[in-house]
Amino acid sequence: MDAIKLLTEDHKTVRGYLDDLEATTPRALKARADLLAKIRVELKAHTTIEEEIFYPAFQSHGKKGDDDKMYFEALEEHRAAGDLVLPDLLGTAVDSEQFSGRAKVLKELVTHHADEEEKDMFPRAKTLLSKEELLALGEKMAARKTVLIAELRATT
């Protein structure tokens, strides 16, 4: 599977979990906790393979200017979601209204980020990288993701 298809499928998975989480009520303690655990694992694995493998390939093939801007903006969006909002959400009681608000903010950040990548970065990557390069990146990313998922689930 090529890198862009893998990342797009990840986006779809996480969007689904975030939609499901948003549809829960404060009384759905187990559902919220289970969905949050899945979101934590999927987001961390996804952002890690992007930052370790996909983004460096994109940046090394890209041109200065707009490509660099896309690269650095994507990294900052990861930082906002993964280092700020998600940890706050993980530390919030699942039966609180604060949880609902933080879950909504995380969903908005992730959705915005995924939409931008799919609309701008991925089409640009298709012009910068050959099909063979995208396939090789996809294989490397899939292998790394498998390891990450196992490690992250073990720490839950």
Mean pLDDT: 93
What gross morphology would you assign?
A: globular
Give the number of helices.
5
Cα distance spanning the termini:
28 Å
- Number of DSSP-assigned strands: 0
Question: Domains counted in the coordinates: how many?
Answer: 1
Structural class: mainly alpha
Helix content class: over 70%
List low-confidence stretches. none
Give the DSSP E fraction (strand runs of 2 or more residues): under 5%
SSE pattern: HHHHH
Please compute the radius of gyration using only Cα atoms.
16 Å
Describe the main β-sheet briefly: none
Structure notes:
This protein is an all-alpha fold and 156 residues long. The protein has one domain (3-154). The chain has helices spanning 3-22, 29-61, 66-90, 97-128, 131-154. The mean pLDDT is 93.
Using brief descriptors, characterize the structure shown.
single chain; 156 residues; mainly alpha; 5 helices; 86% helix
